[in-house]
Design a protein that fits this description.
Elements: H1 2-10, E1 20-21, H2 26-29, H3 33-48, H4 57-84, H5 88-102, H6 107-113, E2 128-138, E3 141-149, H7 151-174, H8 181-199, H9 204-222, H10 229-263, H11 273-281, H12 287-304, H13 313-316, H14 322-330, H15 334-343, H16 345-351, H17 361-377, H18 383-403, H19 407-435, H20 440-443, H21 452-466, H22 472-483, H23 500-525, H24 540-555, H25 575-580, H26 597-629, H27 640-643, H28 645-655, H29 660-673, H30 675-736, H31 741-762
Parallel strand pairs: 1-2
Antiparallel strand pairs: 2-3
Length: 763
């Protein structure tokens, strides 16, 4: 109770409440146990795994399974907390909001206090649960570590633990007998623990630590078979590319820390995510600081979530085991960037001026990425790389949605995408497990009869990805398109701006996605088998996870049916948004688009157009050419690329991946290792070493001069001369020493006389 007021009062000098409580159920306050279980599993497997019956796999599965159960229970606790929280903190939060409104604040702040979208009449803010302890203290600043649990983090806990559990089970078959089986499961557990830590992080410093742990684990797992140079190269490429973007994360977090400290009383700075968002939402931070911070953080998103032009590491990361690819693309690593935008949305929303605009950096990056990824998927012959570029495209969709203000649509697409993309990746692993290859053109084809379960689940995942109703991808994709606010025909939409360009990009991507997935299905499962050996269906440890994921790909879209959807009761509508979107001080006030039947129909027709075009080319033209040639073909002998120069030019551009790899590897890296290295070597040899050599030669000549001219002639000459004079004087004195007392007395008398005379003169 006390902690709630401390946090609320420190949010701004106006006492704006954050919408956070230190109360809540035990599960919500102790969500840190969920990532702790796989973290302990990592240590257990590392130290004892090789001596266990299943080489450590059983420990990893048990820990992640327990984490999944706790995640489900935490989700149930959140539902109860969200719907029925009427405790003292809630009443005080409402009272604080009313007091804040009476103080005469800006219209924007009053609107934020009254914000109740998805609240459906409960009449109070959705209080997130925070539980923190002091991590360490430095220069009078208390740095805390703890959990921030709300609908977003609860949703991510469920997704990450479920996908990770299925990947663990799948892996026992897929990598069975691997030379580093125990090592694999150890890092798989740490990978899951790192992502789970990231999604419940209470502050940006804690998020940064988890962010880097995710990167380290992905490096180890992508390079699992490091003896083969392409695999180790892919791991290094992923690691180094992400380090480039992570510099932006460091700078952005630092800017936010000091910016928040400059407006809060009695504090040097704050890493608190809730406090940072709240002061940003209420206009207390400089727009310039927010803009620079948002741009820096976008660099981290571009590298981690594979956004154009830092996406090139993601397809190469397919060098790792397929279950790792599924985990990276569906629930960890690449969605970390999208999650970070969603978590720090107040910073991005205000910094990039998303509300009331028609274009901004985030929306543009997402729009370009979704087109680049979808177009590059067309020319791949490796089934995993098709899916990798598909992930890049879908991540672009999510970033685009966040860039236009469609927060719930973006997060909902992250949710649905996790299931059908994991299903597709694990399905690609199943077919590759049978033919020992990922090459669709050389080693696949005609596999649907021999592998019916893999085929059916892959078809379900493909339809969901293409966005055809009623599967999951349709609902989230359509919500994103509506959220652009660029559609005004026959009612519907609205949103936070008029992002018509983003709507067009999304529509084109929808058609491209349907087309390249139709191509992928044909090359893998239709035509004649082009591989070797006897085909067979995978075992239950592979097939059962596929069916579970396919089931979620069918039903997940029903969790957020649009408002006004007449076929279901009101209580079933927008359930995802109701429980996941924050309604609190740390979340900005955003407008929500209304559904548009005309947009849904047009987008579906566009998807069907993409399917039809690819179907006609492959299932009709290529199939007919194969029968005529008496062999299984994968392309037309006289296809568009051989007939039309423009088509050939475009194909070459796509085949070269827009020359980005050539730019990075050939020009930048090659130039660094080649001409630049040679220039640096020449500069080192001729300038630096030459200067040192000349300084040394000059020092030697100077030393010789000093020795010859000064030491020998001057110093030694003076000493020798002094010696000779002393010797000569001694000789003369020896003459005086005759041994006669009379002579000594005469000399003594003369000396005394001279001395007496001197004294007389002086005195």
């Amino acid at each position: 109770m006390t902690e709630f007021f401390i946090i609320a009062e420190s949010a701004s000098q106006s006492g704006i409440p954050l919408g956070i409580t230190s109360g809540g159920s035990w599960l919500l306050r102790n969500a840190w146990i969920i990532p702790l279980l796989p973290a302990l599993s990592f240590l257990g497997i590392l130290f004892f795994g090789k001596r266990m019956p299943k080489k450590g796999a059983e420990l990893g599965i048990t820990a992640v399974g327990a984490a999944f159960v706790l995640a489900v229970l935490t989700g149930i606790a959140w539902f109860d907390h969200r719907d029925n929280y009427h405790g003292e903190e809630a009443h005080l939060a409402v009272a604080a909001s009313e007091h804040h409104a009476e103080e005469g604040h800006s219209d924007h702040e009053k609107e934020h206090d009254e914000h109740s979208d998805y609240d459906h009449g409960h009449g109070h803010s959705s209080l997130a649960v925070s539980n923190t302890v002091t991590w360490f203290q430095t220069n009078g600043v208390d740095l805390s570590v703890g959990v921030l649990v709300d609908g977003l983090s609860v949703m991510m806990l469920f997704v990450v633990t479920l996908i990770s559990l299925l990947v663990h089970i799948y892996s026992t078959d897929y990598v069975g007998g691997d030379r580093r089986y125990t090592h694999y499961f150890a890092f798989l557990s740490l990978f899951s623990a790192s992502m789970l830590t990231l999604v419940i992080s209470e502050n940006t410093l804690q998020l940064l630590v988890a962010w880097e742990l995710v990167g380290v684990c992905s490096f180890a797992l992508i390079g699992h078979w490091w003896e083969e140079k392409p695999n180790s190269d892919a791991a290094l490429k992923a690691f180094l590319t992400n380090r480039v973007g992570d510099m932006g994360l460091l700078v952005g977090v630092t800017i936010l820390f000091f910016s928040v400290g400059s407006v809060l009383p009695d504090t040097f700075g704050s890493f608190s995510i809730a406090v940072t968002n709240t002061v940003a939402n209420n206009g207390l931070l400089s727009h310039t600081a927010l803009l620079v911070a948002a741009a820096c953080l976008m660099a981290a998103v571009m590298s981690k979530s594979g956004q154009f032009f830092l996406h090139t590491w993601l397809p190469d990361a397919m060098a790792g085991p397929t279950p790792v690819s599924a985990l990276i693309h569906a629930a960890t690593m690449v969605v970390a960037g999208v999650f970070m935008i969603a978590r720090l949305y107040g910073v991005f929303f205000e910094g990039l001026s998303i509300g009331g605009s028609s274009i901004n950096l985030m929306a543009l990056v997402g729009g370009i990425t979704t087109l680049v990824g979808a177009s590059l998927a067309f020319v791949q012959r490796d089934i995993k790389k098709v899916l990798a570029y598909s992930t890049i495209s879908q991540l672009g969709y999510m970033v685009l949605a966040l860039g236009v203000g469609a927060w719930t649509a973006a997060v909902f697409h992250l949710f649905t995408h996790a299931f059908f993309k994991a299903c597709l990746f694990l399905g690609s692993g199943s077919v590759a497990h049978a033919v020992h290859s990922f090459d669709m053109k050389s080693d696949m084809g005609g596999m649907r009869k021999a592998m019916p379960h893999t085929y059916r689940t892959f078809i379900i995942g493909s339809i969901a990805l293409a966005g055809l109703p009623p599967l999951a991808g349709f609902w989230s994709k359509d919500e994103i398109l509506a959220g652009t606010g660029g559609w005004g025909l026959f009612g519907g939409t609205g949103g936070n701006g008029a992002y018509t360009l983003m709507l067009v990009m999304g529509m084109i991507t929808a058609a491209l996605t349907a087309a390249y997935m139709t191509r992928c299905v044909y090359l893998t499962f239709f035509g004649e088998f082009r591989g070797h050996g006897d085909l067979h269906e995978s075992g239950p440890r592979i097939v059962v996870p596929l069916w579970i994921l396919a089931g979620f790909a069918v039903i997940a879209g029903l969790f957020n049916l649009p408002k006004g959807f007449q076929l279901v009761p009101d209580s079933f509508q927008e359930r995802f948004g109701h429980y996941v979107e924050p309604v609190a001080g740390y979340f900005p006030t955003i407008a929500h688009a209304t559904p548009s039947w005309s947009l849904a129909i047009v987008s579906t027709l566009i998807v069907l157009g993409g399917v039809t075009a690819a179907w006609w080319y492959y299932f009709v033209k290529v199939e007919a050419a194969s029968k005529a040639a008496g062999k299984s073909l994968t392309e037309l002998p006289n296809g568009p690329t051989t007939v039309y120069p423009l088509a050939k030019l475009i194909h070459n551009l796509l085949d070269k991946k827009y020359y980005l790899d050539h730019l990075y590897t050939g020009i930048i890296a090659g130039g660094t290792k080649g001409p630049l290295a040679r220039v640096a070597y020449r500069f080192n040899q001729q300038v630096i070493d030459g200067t040192v050599d000349r300084v040394g030669e000059t020092a030697v000549k100077s030393g010789q001069f000093v020795y010859d001219k000064i030491d020998q002639l001057v110093v030694d000459g003076a000493v020798n001369t002094s010696g000779r004079l002393s010797s000569e004087a001694g000789g003369e004195l020896r003459k005086v020493q005759s041994g006669k007392v009379q002579s000594y007395a005469a000399i003594l008398f003369a000396a005394a006389t001279v001395l007496a005379g001197i004294l007389i003169v002086i005195v």
